[in-house]
Please model this.
Amino acid sequence: MKKIMIALVILITVMRTTAFANEIIVKQEVLNAFKIEYSSAKEVNWTAGENYYKASFTMNDQKLFAFYTIDGEFLALTRYVSSLELPENIQNSLRKQFKEKWITDLFEVANSEGTLYYATLENADSKIILKSATGYWTLYRKDEK
Model:
């Protein structure tokens, strides 16, 4: 009976260690900065990059992503948007310049420098990523398929 109990305790310990091995430990400075700015955030999930933390969360029925340095300094807030949510001048520019491609990804980035938009457009031959800060789109990256 003792051997069964010891084996059971070891099994439970191993399972707990494995289950929590991939948990992200977020620095308290980062958590504090996030809580101050986004106190009504729900469903918060953290991931960590080499030099940043990313909080994925829901607020006001929107899925948002906040990025922080490892010291808790706010970097940017991003969210996916539809083409109809773009400012009118950026929307028109996208429609006129890139009629032959379809939008596969579109998001907004807001930081201390302002608001930027990134659009991924594709056709049968290529995939391009555009960036807009001034109302006009510039090429950020191009990949051939």
Q: What stands out?
A: The beta strands are 42-48, 52-59, 62-69, 74-80, 102-111, 114-122, 126-132, 137-144.
